[in-house]
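The protein record passed on below.

***
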Amino acid sequence: MNKQLSLDINSSKKLFYIQNLAGNIEIMQSSDDQIRIRGQVNASAETIELAKELISSVRLDTQQTRNQTIISVAYPVDFYEGFIYKPNKRQDSWRIYNQAFNYMSKKVKLSNQFNQKTKSWANVHTDLTIELPKNQWNKVNNIAGDIRANNLNGESTISVDKGNVLIAHSKGILKIHSSQGPVNIKNHTGKLDVKTVYGDITGDNISGNIDVKAQNGNIKINKQNGDIRAKSGFGPVTINRLINSESINLTADNGDLRLNGNLLNTNNISLISTNGNIDIVSTHTPSLKFDIETSGEININSPERVIQKNSGDKLVATIGNAKGKASIESDKGNVNFSISKDLNSVIKMYADTDHAKEVKRKKISKDSKLAAMVRIALNRSQKFPKANFSISANDGIVAAKGNLNSKEEIVTAMQIILSVKGVEEASVSSNNKNLN
């Protein structure tokens, strides 16, 4: 069951702030000076009467202050312990497990699963479509649900706790924060500031200075024209087809750093990787002094290089007139620099490497889950309380070793392991060598 919400507001120089508890939000540019909000409230309940009552309790709440207009999708938070959003439907990159969020100055619980604890919660959410005039200062906050925006123009702040963010064809100052979910920006002109806690950051065709940080996620920027500051806590940082940048600052605490494109006008480079390789490919000969320190190998492939100092793990070299500075540190990885016009081959190599790593990661994850399932099955049998098994799995082949006291126990353990779904072959051995 659903109902429609509608609200029109005159544009002003004040901040326009809108917040929603649950539901997808789509933002587009209006053709005049009106802010238009259209919403669809979706609800379900055990009876039609309860669903109608639930829907009727959701409204658009308006608050005017001296500096801002605040629009809130008001839910019956005083009458329900929590709210259900898209029950039993898997999200692309995020899930909600009975979590509490701050919404309209109150703690509100959300979950996307029906269970014994949440069966009395309200199953309701509101999808919004917002039209904003050109240059309207705005802030959009969504607790759970995706945000998509097209043709934003002005100063915009987008925040979401659980959801994906996709921004296209935007201009102006753009700030994005996502606690859990990826952020994707395409064709942006202006300053860009993006932060995610759990989620990848992807940017395509960005013109303007950018500052991006992913605490747990990959960062990939394609066709950047402007200064770059990017940091990833867990995951690689990749800058492809750099158009022009005076200053580049990249950090990957656990991952590779890749930088390719035009470094001709770059005066300052700082690259730090705690646990990964650093690869730099320039289409033009830069004018830089390289100060490199790494525990791995150092390779500088340029006909114009001049080595000033080489002491194994440290290298100082100049390329061109050396007007700029490149400070490069890799704790556990190699550092490579080369000049090439063929960026397609470089980017394909990155893609092949990432694909291979992803295949390996999924395999390790699959093997680890199978080993865990085998351990659970053995423990549940309660036949080997002191066996202390060590278990390994590799493509459906499981090997287990433990403190087994008889050949009968070995046979029993073998039967239990082979009964686990996903196990194709198994071997069991005892720490007692006389039984093997």
